[in-house]
Design goal:
mainly alpha, about 80% helix, Skp family chaperone for outer membrane proteins, Skp_dom_sf, coiled coil, Chaperone_Skp, 9 helices, signal
């Protein structure tokens, strides 16, 4: 539930930042675990609590050893004891184990002495941290300060927005003030002012560097875009010039062919002259229209010639087919006539023989 609330808070911060026009939203963050590890009061209290926990663990080990001894003794003497004594020993062992479990739960359970005393130890330091965070946020004009070590998942956080060291420095100063005289306190205040001024200058330098980097990136992107645009314009000019030169050369070739002249090989000087000679837009349109008309006329003449040739070829093939058919009919007639004569001659010879 807390994670969802923090996520909703971040979304709200984002929309608020987009809506702000006069000043951008400033967000800082702290790492509570890092702060607690570097605060002297917390370190001392943590060491004391660890000593207590170690003592409790030793007591638990002593009780475990006593129970193990009772178990070993019962195991060794079981054959010599009566049923009533065995049950009495087993009840004693069970009672000792129950007491050990209760002791462990009391010291190290979810609501045990270790957790309670740790919360009691951390609470005043957390209050000091919250007070220091509020003071720093007011001084540096932060709108929000988040805890990086909380349930909120932070995928990335820039180091320049981390105020954990500033919080540790504030807590350390507060701890020192209670032990200083008036003169030392005044000297410490001057030293703290100089440190704060140095931090502000470093923050200002970091922001200026970030702004300078952004401006440099924008200028570089604009220069690259301009260079690309100029390159494209130059390529278009060259392409248009080459197209004009090709159109003029083709037009000249068509005019020469129409006038019955053989196309002469263009000299390099002429080509160079044509390429550098400025051509007006009206002249370009006229030359394009004329070349289009010549191309259309030539296409029509070529199509008409192809049609005439195809028709002549078809007529020649038809004549050839008729001649072949006529020759075949004559050949068939001659063959039939010859066969008839041969038959008649054979009949005459037969009659004569008779």
């Amino acid at each position: 539930m807390r994670k969802h609330f923090l996520l909703l808070l971040l979304i709200t911060v984002t929309f608020t930042a987009n809506a702000q026009t006069a000043r951008g939203i400033r967000i800082g963050y702290i790492d509570m675990e890092y702060i607690l590890q570097n605060v002297p009061d917390f370190t001392e209290a943590k060491n004391q609590l660890e000593q207590k926990a170690q003592k409790w663990k030793q007591e638990i080990e002593v009780k475990k050893n006593e129970i193990n001894k009772l178990k070993e003794s019962l195991k060794t003497e079981r054959v010599l004891l009566t049923k009533e004594l065995i049950e009495e020993r087993e009840e004693e062992i069970l009672f000792q184990e129950t007491e050990l479990t209760a002791f462990q739960e009391k010291r190290f359970g979810p609501n045990g002495d270790l957790i309670v005393q740790k919360a009691v130890m951390v609470k005043p330091i957390q209050d000091q941290v919250f007070t220091a965070v509020q003071d720093i946020a007011e001084q540096k004009k932060y709108d929000f300060v988040l805890d990086k070590s909380s349930d909120l998942t932070v995928l990335f956080a820039a180091k320049r927005f981390d105020i954990s060291d500033a919080v540790i420095r504030s807590l350390t100063r507060s701890s020192k003030r209670s032990q200083l005289s008036k003169k030392e306190l005044k000297e410490e205040e001057i030293k703290e002012y100089q440190e704060d001024l140095q931090d502000q200058n470093s923050d200002l330098a970091a922001r200026q560097k970030a702004l300078e980097d952004k401006r440099t990136a924008r200028e570089k992107a604009a220069a690259d875009k301009k260079a690309e645009r100029e390159r494209l314009m130059e390529e278009r000019k060259l392409a248009a010039q080459e197209k004009r030169e090709a159109a003029l050369a083709k037009r000249q070739q068509l005019i020469d062919e129409k006038n019955g002249k053989k196309p002469e090989a263009s000299k390099p000087e002429d080509a160079k002259k044509i390429g550098t000679e400025p051509v007006s837009e009206d002249k370009q349109k006229t030359s394009t229209q004329e070349s289009t008309k010549v191309e259309t006329l030539e296409d029509k003449q070529a199509a008409r010639k192809e049609a005439v040739d195809a028709k002549a070829k078809e007529l020649e093939e038809r004549k050839k087919a008729i001649a072949d058919k006529k020759a075949k009919i004559l050949a068939d007639r001659e063959a039939a006539k010859k066969a008839k004569e041969d038959k008649k001659e054979t009949e005459n010879k037969t009659e004569e023989n008779k």
